[in-house]
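Priority: medium. Attachment 1 of 2:
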């Protein structure tokens, strides 16, 4: 018997590996079909910061190469 009055064994287990499906983690959509077909519902997802970092670093690098020629001129 444990301190809270429960016997040791597999009768009561709190687990981080519970058997929940992916569909249990999200609420179902509550929109009508007409609202779902609007144009703003079909926009592409936002990009992550790491996805934006590469192109901006490339643009900054290109500007750093070209800037001395423009400034010195």
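Attachment 2 of 2:
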């Amino acid at each position: 018997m444990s301190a809270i009055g429960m016997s040791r064994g597999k009768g009561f287990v709190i687990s981080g590996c519970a058997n929940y499906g992916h569909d249990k983690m999200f609420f179902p959509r509550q929109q009508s079909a007409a609202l779902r077909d609007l144009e703003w519902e079909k926009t592409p997802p936002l990009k992550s910061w790491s996805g934006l970092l590469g192109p901006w670093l490339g643009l900054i690098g290109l500007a750093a190469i070209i800037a001395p020629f423009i400034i010195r001129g």
